[in-house]
């Protein structure tokens, strides 16, 4: 009788990744199984009598926390270590979940929402940096794609679970969400260890002859490591990163509308919270089923070109939300932007990781996560404001045009990013 090989159960895209990557993957699944409060927050607030402008206060606070957390998390990841930073964020966010549920008024709800997102978003820069520490540049896209796959495996269950629990009491959403964070914290405490701190690199011999603007820029950054300190100066002096991150931010803004404007559209169509849960599950199931295959097949193509194609799909799918008026229409739009999500999985984080010097990976990932936070904040504030004041059609057209232009411009940076990667490899 043939023996079952455990490695045969692992998609080929992810074979050969080290145990650290798989531990973060497993913890992420546990955590995302409980990602319930934020997707259903609009419905929870409505049940508490919070509507209209007051809703924007709470959602705005939630978005503001996503600006604070990544900046702090990136510095802490480089200063005190990846593991302690993850523990601080997970335990702090779990406590803030209870505070939000017990909050007696709008302003205390907003304060608790700020704490949830600020604490929770300190985790990702540390986790991303730990993944970059564990694998070489050739495997980083696969490591980050596996991380994203774990997110969607958990979300596939959480979407259905959230709709079920919301119908039986919103307190269940908070209890499961906080419990999953504490479970992930336990995994981090028991299974993960920080790598040795990398030394700041000296200027490599022959850097003067590096070809192209990116080679010169990279040599300049390596020639002045003593100025990096523990802040974000190392990122702010990186011209390519400063060009790339805003383009990724626009695409992330468009994608964040699926978490913010989509539930508003479903609510305005007179559909129940369970419908939004089902849409989240459709997205997650598609990504879980297709991402390993897509990651392997698309690895042969220039990654920023793939990012551009996937970003265009996401923009088109989000814009299709404006044409939906029932479950079928919303499902079609979700399928389109989910295919775009499958295509881009792991690329942005991998590119940012490859731009970063080893001693500043936490801050580069903090800058990337801050870009995520800024995109979500814009979606929660400007996106909601545009939807409610200018009208949904304005928002959907903006998403289509801005997302497509940003995606195509990102693809045009392929040669510069490749030149930089070649220089870093030579260094």
Structure description:
The chain contains 18 helices and no strands. The protein has helices at 19-33, 41-47, 53-79, 82-102, 106-120, 123-134, 137-166, 170-191, 212-223, 233-236, 239-268, 273-298, 303-320, 327-344, 347-355, 361-390, 392-411, 414-426. Helices cover 77% and strands 0% of the residues.
Largest sheet: none
Separation, N- and C-terminal Cα atoms = 51 Å
Q: Into which percentage range does the β-strand content fall?
A: under 5%
Runs in which pLDDT lies below 50 for 5 or more consecutive residues are 1-9, 202-226
Q: What radius of gyration results from the CA coordinates?
A: 21 Å
The coarse silhouette is: globular
* SS elements, strand count: 0
| Portion of residues within helices | over 70%
Classification by helices and strands: mainly alpha
Total number of helices: 18
Topology as H/E string? HHHHHHHHHHHHHHHHHH
Topology at a glance:
Blueprint: H1 19-33, H2 41-47, H3 53-79, H4 82-102, H5 106-120, H6 123-134, H7 137-166, H8 170-191, H9 212-223, H10 233-236, H11 239-268, H12 273-298, H13 303-320, H14 327-344, H15 347-355, H16 361-390, H17 392-411, H18 414-426
Helix pairs in contact: 1-7, 1-8, 3-4, 3-5, 3-6, 3-16, 4-5, 4-6, 4-8, 6-16, 7-12, 7-15, 9-18, 11-13, 11-16, 11-17, 12-14, 13-14, 13-17, 15-16, 16-17
Features:
427 residues; mainly alpha; 77% helix; 0% strand
Provide a concise account of the structure shown.
The chain has 427 residues and is an all-alpha fold. The protein has helices spanning 19-33, 41-47, 53-79, 82-102, 106-120, 123-134, 137-166, 170-191, 212-223, 233-236, 239-268, 273-298, 303-320, 327-344, 347-355, 361-390, 392-411, 414-426.
């Amino acid at each position: 009788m043939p023996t079952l090989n455990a490695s045969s159960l692992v998609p080929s895209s992810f074979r050969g990744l080290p145990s650290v990557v798989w531990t973060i993957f497993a913890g992420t699944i546990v955590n995302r199984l409980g990602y319930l409060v934020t997707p259903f927050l609009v419905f929870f607030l409505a049940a508490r009598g919070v509507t209209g402008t007051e809703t924007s206060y709470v959602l705005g606070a939630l978005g503001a926390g996503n600006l604070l957390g990544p900046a702090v998390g990136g510095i802490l990841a480089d200063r005190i270590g990846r593991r302690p930073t993850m523990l601080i964020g997970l335990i702090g966010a779990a406590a803030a979940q209870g505070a939000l549920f017990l909050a007696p008024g709008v302003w205390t709800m907003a304060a608790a929402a700020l704490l949830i997102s600020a604490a929770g978003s300190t985790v990702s820069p540390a986790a991303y940096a730990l993944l970059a520490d564990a694998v070489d540049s050739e495997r980083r896209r696969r490591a980050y794609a596996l991380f994203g796959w774990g997110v969607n495996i958990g979300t596939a269950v959480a979407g259905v679970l959230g709709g079920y629990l919301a119908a039986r009491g919103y307190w269940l959403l908070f209890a499961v969400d906080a419990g999953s964070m504490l479970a992930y914290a336990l995994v981090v405490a028991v299974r993960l260890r920080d790598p040795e701190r990398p030394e700041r690199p000296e200027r490599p011999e022959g850097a003067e002859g590096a070809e192209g603007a990116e080679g010169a820029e990279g040599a300049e950054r390596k020639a002045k490591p003593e100025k990096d300190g523990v802040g974000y100066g190392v990122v702010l002096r990186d011209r390519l990163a400063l060009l790339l991150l805003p383009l990724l931010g626009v695409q992330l803004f468009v994608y964040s509308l699926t978490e913010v404007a989509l539930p508003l559209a479903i609510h305005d169509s007179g559909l129940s919270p369970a419908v939004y849960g089902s849409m989240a599950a459709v997205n997650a199931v598609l990504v879980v089923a297709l991402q390993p295959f897509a990651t392997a097949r698309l690895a042969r193509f220039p990654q920023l070109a793939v990012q551009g194609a996937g970003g265009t799909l996401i923009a088109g799918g989000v814009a299709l939300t404006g044409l939906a008026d029932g479950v079928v229409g919303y499902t079609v739009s979700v399928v389109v932007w989910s295919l775009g999500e499958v295509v881009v999985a792991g690329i942005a984080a991998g590119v940012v990781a490859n731009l970063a010097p080893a001693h500043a990976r936490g801050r580069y990932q903090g800058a990337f996560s801050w870009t995520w936070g800024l995109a979500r904040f814009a979606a929660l504030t400007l996106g909601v404001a545009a939807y409610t004041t200018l009208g949904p059609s304005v928002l959907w057209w903006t998403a289509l045009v801005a997302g497509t232009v940003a995606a195509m411009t990102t693809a045009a940076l392929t040669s510069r990013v490749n030149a930089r990667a070649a220089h870093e490899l030579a260094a």
